[in-house]
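Private note to self, pasted from the team thread so I don't lose it. Backbone tokens:
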């Protein structure tokens, strides 16, 4: 037994119980039909002319029903007599390579076979202007050469700054469609100024590029599509501000204000730009955003397959596992930090041999006198917070909460022979 195992062998883990957190569960019964209706409105699809080459910008986030939304948009463009193609719009994601970005889309179910349009991926960009502060504004070369541009993205709170415009269509223009160089430029002066630079860059792009419309999506707390709307350039910014307020109201959350330990099974770029959404965990990569629970120690156990080794965000946790570290593609992860200029999330958290030791380490260091009273929550990832696990030390609080239902009996943690939790 090594020294770490000896230090942690007697640290107790509390019994756990499954609960259901209830949120507003309104979702569109048919997101494809809603998308079809939105993009085929005359005032929307009428902005695409017959014979045009149309770049459809699609990002790397795990947007619910993404292939269907892209497919319906592509079909509408084709029916208008134009020729759509897909442009990966994800800044430096995918290892900041053309091949990597096409692979990210394929993992999300977006390729020529699934959506009916070819994917044209390049990291080449064209500079189309500069902000008054000197920051250059870039756009993907294929999009720049297109006759029209359509942008598809989810509107949601950002993970590192607050503003009237955060994550959505305008950020997709400024950062996603700008590829690595555009993302780098927008982040150059840091997140302190991001609430200014994102909309300022997007306004220039809307003025200088043939943006036909943006397809904005809002999701409920269960990662389901609850709103699909096509935004035209003239009113895009104003409407996106309104959609952001709605998205914030629907954000999933942990219904506990204080936790000693938060265990997260999976992190990944398909979950959040920061691997796990700080709006849920309360752990932010910058001082320019806040909110969420007070968590003393946080553990991340594994990476999603879709993240392709990008463990960005692991540095905001306190502990992780050797399994996660072994899966990490350092170059891909570091490219995120170098582009965003925020490198704390790309550090490797204190690494233990397995799940059991990582969780025990969190309990040992959570600064309470009696380990048996540790307040623990375990979630699959920050997108799925409907059913979670909590320690029995939280049962009284859970039972008193009107939006929590206890749905199981207490049970002990179970680990395999190697000390990992069963999947």
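Design output:
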């Amino acid at each position: 037994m090594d020294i770490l195992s000896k230090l942690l062998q007697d640290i107790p883990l509390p019994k756990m119980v499954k609960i259901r957190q209830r949120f507003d569960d309104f979702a569109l019964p048919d997101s494809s039909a809603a998308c079809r209706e939105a993009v085929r409105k005359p005032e929307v699809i009428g902005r695409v002319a017959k014979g045009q080459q149309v770049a459809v910008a699609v990002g790397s986030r795990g947007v619910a029903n993404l292939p269907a939304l892209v497919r319906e948009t592509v079909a509408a463009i084709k029916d208008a007599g134009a020729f759509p193609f897909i442009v990966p719009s994800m800044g430096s994601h995918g290892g900041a390579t053309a091949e990597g970005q096409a692979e990210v889309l394929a993992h999300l179910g977006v390729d020529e076979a699934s959506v009916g349009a070819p994917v044209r991926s390049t990291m080449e960009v064209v500079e189309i202007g500069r902000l008054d502060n000197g920051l250059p504004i870039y756009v993907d070369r294929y999009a720049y050469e297109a006759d029209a541009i359509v942008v598809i993205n989810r509107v949601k709170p950002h993970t590192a700054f607050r503003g009237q415009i955060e994550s959505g269509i305008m950020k997709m223009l400024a950062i996603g469609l700008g590829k690595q160089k555009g993302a780098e430029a927008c982040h150059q002066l840091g997140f302190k100024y991001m609430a200014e630079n994102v909309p300022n860059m997007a306004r220039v792009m809307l003025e200088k590029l043939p943006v036909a419309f943006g397809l904005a999506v809002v999701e409920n707390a269960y990662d389901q599509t609850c709103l699909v709307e096509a935004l035209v350039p003239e009113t895009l910014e104003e409407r996106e501000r309104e959609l952001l307020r709605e998205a914030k109201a629907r954000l999933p959350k942990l219904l506990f204000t204080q936790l000693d330990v938060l265990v997260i099974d999976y992190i990944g770029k398909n979950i959040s730009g920061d691997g796990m959404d700080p709006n849920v965990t309360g752990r932010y990569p910058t001082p320019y955003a806040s909110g969420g629970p007070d968590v003393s120690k946080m553990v991340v156990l594994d990476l999603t397959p879709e993240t392709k080794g990008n463990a960005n965000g692991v540095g905001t946790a306190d502990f992780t596992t050797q399994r996660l570290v072994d899966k990490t593609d350092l170059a891909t992860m570091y490219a995120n930090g170098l582009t965003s200029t925020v490198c704390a999330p790309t550090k490797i958290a204190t690494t233990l041999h397995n799940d059991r030791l990582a969780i025990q380490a969190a309990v040992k260091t959570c600064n309470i006198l009696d380990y048996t009273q540790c307040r623990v929550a375990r979630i699959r990832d920050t997108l799925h917070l409907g059913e979670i696990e909590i320690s029995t030390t939280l049962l009284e609080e859970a039972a008193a909460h009107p939006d929590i239902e206890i749905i199981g009996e207490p049970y002990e943690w179970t680990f395999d022979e190697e000390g990992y939790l069963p999947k």
